[in-house]
Fold these 3 entries.
Entry 1:
Amino acid sequence: MKKILVVDDDRTIHAVLRAILHKDYDVHSAVDGLQGVTMARQVKPDLIILDLQMPAGGGGSVYERLQIIAETALIPVLVLTASSLEEAVKRVPGLPPERVLIKPAAPKDVLSAVSQALAS
């Protein structure tokens, strides 16, 4: 079963994503940027779902750190944010627009984006 790491400071988002994904994926959670980077190195997920606005390292800085660490650099990242698509792409240089989901995202959109990110 593929592993997904959700990095978001909102525990409700964790619960919603776990409910959407738990049948098909092993879902792990981190509540801030520092914990997200640490867990990414430990868990070695197949995909990271990352919020942009959170304490202990916003999503942009977490994304940058993940890209420079050898064991996490190739893990695909899907950004789930309340910001606009334009703002998300600006805050995370190099992130493809198709890897951005705007909150609140419909369950079918989450599943589709996860599936596409894992396939690429």
Note: The radius of gyration is 13 Å.
Entry 2:
Amino acid sequence: MTAPNDALLEALRLLRIEYLKDAPQRVAEVRSLLAGAERGEGGALDKLRRALHKLAGSGGSYGYPELSARSRAGELEAQRLLDTHAPVSAPGLETLRVMVEGVAAAFAAAADGSVEPQ
């Protein structure tokens, strides 16, 4: 018979697999929202901030603190840019682009198993 703890660990493992299956779509979404912000589309930067906020929470919930930290940093940068109430500058967008690519890298590391969930 499987111990309750073993069953819980197996359930969590399966949930992580499902979470990482959606990683390409999640990365595509934040990249698309960033592209919208770069084109000056209204609301894209705030949508990006919200998407990164969700990833910051879910990354931590599924045991990927690096994904969570990178997403949170991107969320805070997007909020900082929003708080200026000015058109987003090229350097600001470049900083955000680097952060979004960091999120993509964290997802890739989790998906390929080079980072163990915590």
Note: The domain at 4-111 is CATH 1.20.120.160 (Four Helix Bundle (Hemerythrin (Met), subunit A)).
Entry 3:
Amino acid sequence: MKIAVLGASTTKFGELWDQSPRVLAKKAVFEAISKSGLGTRDIEAIFVGNMLSGILGGQENLGPLFADELGIFCPAFKIEGACASGGLAAHNAINSILGGQYKTVAVLGIEKMTDHKPEEVASGLMAAGADEEREAGATFVSLYALMARAHMEAYGTTEREMAAVSVKNHFHASLNERAQFNKLVSLEQVLSSPKIADPLKLMDCSPVSDGASAIVISHDRFTGKVIDPVWIVASSVATDTLALSQREDLTSLRAVRLAAENAYKAAGVSPSDVDVAEVHDCFSIAEIIACEDLGFFGRGKAAREIANGKTKLGKGRPVINPSGGLKACGHPVGATGVKQIVEIATQLRGEADERQVKKAKIGLTHNVGGSGAIAVIHILRS
């Protein structure tokens, strides 16, 4: 498999009160097309990753809505898979090219969340949870708190080590002008922030965000005017039980392990080959578990390695979440999986400015839906 990323763009993430989804979509897609060296007439299909447009906005028909807004009248599809919607949109777009249906397509990930009440957003997000979890009044922060507690009991992971994830990601975001939070935070600030679901605190949690990201991808025979494109060399999806209570182990996500195993095999690489990764740190414990499931560190060792700076820019390999991750760059849920690909493509092109990972050649994205019911892994190389 060899798919070229010809253009990639993301809007700023944050509380974008003055920008509608239509405006955000146009910004992201037109900038990605401009960077690709192509024109709108070259786009043969549009894949839109989004989770909450029907629940919060009352509009499900996003494919033709954005095709109309963009003036690109081509086949257009909405792809939904909870917080993995963006990654799944990319996966489906890649397969449409590999299957010979299209040559060049655009992938848009988008979400507008801050226009709605917090309780409406929380309820909407739990649409990705199991019936029994909703009936019990659970939210995703409480489900990940259970996972955090299990990891702490199994491996001695501490609250200070989890807080170090947030500190590191805020440092990376301080170098990213399009991140939601550009300010540094201290370990003490994270640890003293209000508890949301013990042991997770406010500063362990990703924020409610608005934003859009887009990529233009093509078969290797149709690379447009881009002389040296970045290549997607693996795209893998796996699933697990919807309910957390049905899983054998709360300290690991089986869907991630399976998707990663298949992606590494398809790309012909191992975890030690990865220079930079964007992982789904919806909560600080999620990044710790991801680094273990992806094979970057042994089981029960990631928290200490992250706290010791092994994944921080300029300190070690792989650098994790140079964009700031979901925690500090922001988490407009439908956009996240596409933003991750944008960041890795930017890194592999050497265009990440102050947050550039030196000599980055191989990158990985890890996008998760729900509490790990679905996972999407992409591997890219320059």
Note: The chain has two domains: 3-117+209-219, 139-204+231-381.
